[in-house]
Amino acid sequence: MNINVPSKQQLMSSSKQVATVIDLNKCMACQACTVACKTLWTDREGAEHMRWMSVATAPGPGYPRNFEKSGGGYDAKGNPRAGIIPTIVDCGDDLQFNHQEVLYGGKGQSVHLQPKSKLGGDPEWTYNFEEDQGAGDWPNPYHFYLPKKCNHCSHPACVDACSRNAISKRDDGIVLIDQEKCQGHRHCVEACPYKMVFFNPKKQKSEKCIECFPRIDQGIASGCNRQCPGRTRAFGHIQDEESLVHKLVNVWKVAIPLHPEFGTQPNVYYVPPMSALAYDDDNKLTDEMRLPNAVLESYFGKDVHRALAVIINEREKKKQGGESELMDLLISRKWHDRFAQFTNDPV
Amino acid sequence: MKLSYIKASNETLLSPSSSAWGKVESHAVDLFQTPIAMVAHLSPFMALSETHGRINKLNFKMAHNEKTANIYVTWQDETRDDKIEDLDQFIDSVAIMFPLTPTAQSMTMGDADNPVNMWFWRADQKDPYDVIAHGFGTSERRSGALHGLSVFSEYRNGHWHVVFQRNMRSNIIGHKQVAFKPKDISGLAFAIWDGSNKERSAQKSFSGNWLAFEVDA
Question: How far apart are CA A20 and CA A34, in angstroms?
Answer without folding.
Answer: 15
